[in-house]
Every structure is written in C-alpha cells, then in structure tokens.
Amino acid sequence: MATNSQAPPKNTTDVNAKVSQNSFGLATPEATPAVEDGRIAADKERMAAAMRQLLEPSSSSSAETREQVTDAADNNANDEIDVEIKRIMHCFDSSYAEILGVNPNSPEKEVVAAWRHLGCMLHPKFVKHPNVEAAFKKLRTAARKMGLDDLDIDEVMYWDGEEQFDASEPDTAMDEDAIPIPPQRVTNVYGEATPLLYRLGQDPSDPVLLGQLYRLNAKITTANRAENIEENQWTIPGAAFFGPHYNEAGQRYEMLRNDPANEKVKSEIMKEKTLIDSFIERNHFPKQWTILTPDEYLKRDSDATRSGIKDKAQAAAKASAAAVDAHALAKTYLQSITETKDKLEGLDDATVARVEEAEQAIIAEVANALAAREMAKASAEKASLASTIQEATEALEAAEAAYTTAAEATKAANLAMDEALSLVDAAESAANSSQNSIEYPWTTTLAADGSLIVGVRKHGATGTQILTTTSLSKVLGRSSAAAEIRRVCERDGIQPPSEAGWVSHYYDPSKVEKDPVRRRALRDSQAITPSDDHLGRQRQSPGASSKAESRMVQQLQDKVENLENEMKDRVENLENQMKDMKDMTIKMDQNMATLMGMFKEFMRTSATTS
C-alpha cells in the first residue's frame, strides 16, 4: 500500500501475503493529513529517519544497500501494523470514531480517508497477523456506523492490494493503465462467463456455478503462467464481487417493481451501478456485465409485462376454443346414442337398461362440458382485460383448468357411447346367431312326405323350419350331408339316423295314454312291430342306449355348469360396471361442485369489478 502519509516499497505486500494484482480492481485508499496529524507526522519523520540511516553508509547504491533499505522499510511497516491492531483491539466496540482515529464530528471526507488508510493497512487478505481479521471487522463496522455507504465500504473490501487512491479526492478514479487490457483469449473466457454471472446473481453460493467459474478462471491462470504473467491477473471475481452485487441489485429491483416511485431504492440501485461500472472499467471487464438503471429496469419490466399479458391472453383464448370444440364433440356422442336407441326394439331388457344408463351418463358429461366451456370463455375474456401478469396468469390457469374439465367430460361421454354401442352390437349379433343357427333335435320319425326329420329352427315369430336329410343332401351333397349328420350325432351323444332303430323301441306311448281302449291298442300295435330287420335297420341294444343316455346326462351337466359360470361372470361384470358408474357419478358431482365454485367466484369478481 502506498499513501501520501507513508511510502513503503511495493514489495511490502510480497513479504506479507505475496500479493498479486487480481481481478478485484478497486482503488487503494490513502490517508489525508487531516486525520491524526500528529501521529501521521511522527510516522513520516520516523520513516524518513530510517531511510536516511540506511542510505548514509554508502552512496554507491549497491544491491546490498538497496536490500537493507527494503528490509528496514518492511520491518517498519510491520511494526506500524502491530501498533494499529493493538490500538484498535483495545478500543471499545462502540467507540467508532476512536477505532478509525478521527474525531466524532469529523466530516465524511476524513472518515472515508481513515477507513481507506486503515482498511488497506489491515486488510486480512494481504496481512498475516493473529488479530488482523478481528481488527478489520471492527474497522468495517465503525466505518458503517460513521455513515459510510456500501460504495465506500466495498471499494476497500474488494481492494486488490496494489492500486492506489488519490488522497485528496476519495472518489477520484485510479489510473486506467494499472491493469493491462486483456488479450483475446481472456475476452473469449469472459464471453463464456457472461451467462454464468447473471445466474450467479440469483444464488451467489450456487456450487455448480462457482465450479464452472473456477474452471474458466483456471484457463486464464494456466495461460498466464505459460506467458510469465501475474497468475491471477484478469480472473473473474464471481463469488467475491459480481454474485453478491448482482444479488443486491436484484433485491432492489424487486422493491422498485412493487414501488416504482421509491427514490431511496433508486438511489441504492444507482450506487450499485456506479460501483459495478467502476469495477468493470478498471479491470477491463465486458461492459455488458453492468446492471440497468432504475428507469431502464422499469421500462423493460413494463414492456415485459405487456408482452407477458398478451401471451397469456392468447393462450387462454386457445384453451377457450379447445373447450368449445370439446363440448361440440360431446354433443355428437349424445346424438349417436340417441340414434342407437332406435335399434333397441326386440333386444333383451338388460341391454336396453344399460343403453339408457349410458345415455344418462352422456347427458351429464355434456352438461359438464358445457359448464366448462362457459368458464373457459369467461376466463379468456378476463385474461384479455388483465392489467398485471398475476391477473393474466390466474385467468390462464382457470381457462386451462376449464378446458381440462371439458376434455375429461368428452372422454367420459365417448367411453359411455362406445360401451352402449358395443352392447347393442353384441345383442344384435346374438339375436342373429340364434336365428341363423341350426340345432339338431335328432329323431327317427318320418315326415308326412316320408322324409326323415333331422333338424328344426325358428322362422319368424311363430313359424318353424324343418331340415330334412333330403334338403340337407341337396345343399351339401349326399356324402357331405351324411358326414355332417354323423358329426352332430357324435357331438350330442346319439346314434346317427342310419344306425338308430324305430322310436317305438325307445318310447312307449301306451304308458302315458289314459284311455284304456287306446292304451291296449297302442300296446298291441307295438308288440307286432318288426324290430330286428324293419327296413333293414338294426335295433339299438340296451347297453348302447345306456351309454348314450350317460353321455347326454354328462353333456347336460357340463352345459348347466358352463351356463352357471357364464351367469356368474356376467353378474361380476355387472357389479364392476355398476361400481365404475358410481365412481363416475361421484367424480361428476365433484367436477360440478368445483365448476360451480369457480363460476360463483367469477360472478363475484365480475360484480366487484363492475
């Protein structure tokens, strides 16, 4: 440090802390003769005497003499540092003027000079002493309590250890050539650091950003060493300077946004800008690292607000249009289910009931979509009339929520419609299948025209169609018809007609006849009926009959069991569907309650606004 009060050589700092010209390019404060004139004069006289004594032994200016002079000056400076630390530590914490060595009524210029003089002398970054940090902290507190602002405090806090202040003018800028203009390699690194510094202002302690800045500074220091340049020259003080000051300015900007007419906040922002601009200019940092003036910030904030409101209003309008489309789509589902009801005639009652339930569900969802559409329209209109970002944001959120409700209602209506259409299609398919299928209640009796009856099916409401072996042979051919008849007979556990006997062999009508005369006639008729070779047919043995009956009984039991399982599955499906319908109804009630609350809130807000 060099001042007008004392002039130790420049390598004094090398002895104490091997000081380098780093990137904190703040000016070195100097004392004024007005501060403790007697003490400073005595220091001058003592230093001059020491210099004369060291220079007297030889006038040859040898290297040995110059080293002695340097050592003596260093020792003298260290003695002064020890004296000042002891003096400050013996002062009461509240004796601010005594700590700075000024009178309590001293003008601000003298307080600034004393803070610069003592602050640079006892700067803990460059002085190694057990109590230097405590003494420096007391000095800083005293300077602040004596009325110095952040600009005056920070210029010493971020002092680089070598640069000088003009003692007669505390605010006079230092020599601009103290730090060389950085080369292109350094400006390239500055370009990489620009976005990191802006983000660091939001969180000066962000470890990720600090790590990235450290790596960028490493590029500078590595190249500096290779070129024999001071290692820390041109490095970026992100955590020590830009981060804290950007953060401080950001807090002031937020206060200014809430109170644009606050002159005190504007003044504080300008102080921060002055300090940052001075720091940038002295260290040749990029000019875009500065901050905005209060007027520039307010203008940009106003422009951003208008742009943001416009964007949110447009987004709300899109959400409203989407809600309108969703409601229109839900109405088409209702129209489809209404047209489907015309096909319910002739279907079973369960299917008709399910379709009617689906129709009611779709009507409810269409109503939900309609309410959501109206809410979205109202929110979009509110967003277009908003005067603040917050109002526009709230309106946009309401419009998007309404669209979501409309879309969910439309989706639920679509599911209900699909389910109803599936039920109708399944019922129609089952009806058509039952009408078109051919069942084979085999018999060995003859039709009136002598043909053998092999199957029947319903025809219309009251008619019956009879399928005979003759007609089946005409359709499939004799061989194919015989094979099909045999396949069905084996499936049903009975003998094919070509192998079966007469019905009278298995069925005795005389046992159910009540008239005794007819019963006797029937019994006599059956007794004289040929059995072994009638029409070349073989009589079916009792063993074959019992096996066929057993197979038929087993098949009937299997069919009953399958039918029971099918009915059980249908009941379970019906219960699940009823549960789903209940959940859907609960959700619909909740949505309606939410929409009604939003609508009431909107009506209340509209009434208040009007």
Automatic annotation (TrEMBL):
Residues 1-36, 48-77, 524-555 are annotated as: Disordered. Residues 375-409 form a coiled coil. InterPro entries: J_dom_sf. The keyword Coiled coil applies. Keywords: Coiled coil. Residues 1-25 have a biased composition (Polar residues). PANTHER family: J DOMAIN-CONTAINING PROTEIN SPF31. This is J domain-containing protein.
